[in-house]
Amino acid sequence: MLEPKIRAPKNRGFYVRMKLLPSKHGRSSVPQLEKKSFFYRNCKWVLWLSLSLYFFSSYLISNHPNQKNNNKPTSLSKTHFSSLASRALYESTTNNITQKQGLHFNGLKIFVYDLPAKYNTDWLKNERCSTHLFASEVAIHRALLTSEYLTVDPYEADFFFVPVYVSCNFSTVNGFPAIGHARSLIASAINLISTQYPFWDRSHGSDHVFVASHDFGSCFHTMEDVAISDGIPGFLKNSIVLQTFGVKQKHPCQEVENVVIPPYVSPESVLRTLEKSPVTGRRDIFAFFRGKMEVHPKNYNGDRRFFLQRHRFAGYQSEIVRSVFCLCPLGWAPWSPRLVESVALGCVPVIIADGIRLPFDDVVPWAEISVNVAEKDVGKLAEILEHVAATNLSAIQKNLWDPRVPRALMFNDRVHEGDATWRVLSALANKRPGRTEGREFRANRTPTAWTSWNWRKEKWFLPANGCA
Questions:
Q1: At what angle do helices 381-391 and 393-400 cross, to 10 degrees?
Q2: Which residues form the Exostosin GT47 domain (predicted)?
C-alpha cells in the first residue's frame, strides 16, 4: 500500500515522497530500501537540479531573437492573376484559405473558367435549374467557387472546369429537360476559352472537366438510339466528363474519360424529412415504389406489404423514410434519382438495373448497403426480399445508416469533406498525370463486343418525374 507524504522543503518547489507500508495482511509490498545509502539521501537534490536546468535552457531557446523571427507567420506565396479572372473568383479564394489547404489530394488545384452568364447563371432564372435531379452541374460549379482547391492562377492548375449548364432548359410542354442546344453551347464555350486562353490547345482538352448530368451523359441526348447514333461530340473526346450515366458493358456514351456521379437530390429536402422522421424511426412499409410503371403490378396487388403507387406525390420522401425496402429500377437510362433518395433516407435500395455502374463504386460499399435484383427475377421480388429480411437485413441497415454513406452521394453548395463534390475532387486527383491508378474506369472495362440494347424496352418502372 502506498501512502503519499508531502513535505514543505526549505528551498523553492516541493516533492512527493512515497512511503512503502506493509499490507493489511502483514506482508511487506516490497523489500525495505536501504535508507542510509548516499543515493537515497541525495537523489531529490539531483532531480531538482536537473529539472531547473531543463526549464531554464528551454526558456533561453524559445526566447532567442532568431527563434522569434522564425515563428512569424509564413506569408502566402505571390499569386498571379489572369486578366480574365473575375472578382468573385478572387474573393472566394482569399476568403477560404485555411490551414487545411493542401492536406487532401496532394495540393490539387482547379481553375474555373469565368464564362459569360449565357453559359450558366442566366439559366438559373428557372428555379428548377438548381433543384432538379440534373442540378449537379450547378452544385459542383458553386462548390468549386468557394473551395480551397480553387486557384485563380491557371498556370498552377491541374484541371480546368468548364461551367456550362446544359440541363437547365426545360420543355414547357412536358417539363422535361430539353438539351438539344447542349452540343452547340459547349462548342461555343470551347471556342471562347481556346481563343482567350492557351490551355485548351496545350492539352487538346485532356485536363478540362465537363458535367453531363442527364440521361445518356457524354452523348448529350435523352433517347438512347439517338444518343448512340450521334455519339460523343468530337470536341470532347479527350476531356473528362462527370456523368450520371454508367454501365458495365461497353457503350458508346461512356467511351471517354469519365467519372460516374450521383444524380442531384436536394440536401435541404432530405434534412426536412429527417427532422420529422429519423432514419432509425418506425418503418411500417415493407417495400415501396412511387412512379410510372410499364408493367402492371398485378403480382403484388394482394400483398399489402408492397406499397406501389403510380401517381405523383410531392411529399413522397415521407414514404421513403417509412419504408424498409425501396425499389430502384432503371428509368429512361439505367440510373434513377430514387437511388440517392433511398440511401439518404435510410431505406434499403433494391437495384433493378442490369449492368448499371453505380456512382463512386470505389468508395461506396454498394454490396453492403443494397440489394441487387436481376430484371428477369422481378417476379420473385417478394421471395427475395423476404429472404433478406430474415437473414441479413439488420447488417445492411447498420451499414446503410452510417452517416458517411449518404454524405458521399449528396452535393452541397460548399465542399464538405466526404460529400459528392469532395468525391469528384478525389477522383480527379487520381487522374493527374503519373497517377495511372485513377484510370480504373477505362482499365477495368471488359473488352467485349458491344451490342445495342434499348433500356426503355427492358425497364419495368419509370420514376415519378419521368426523366430517369
A1: 80
A2: 106-387
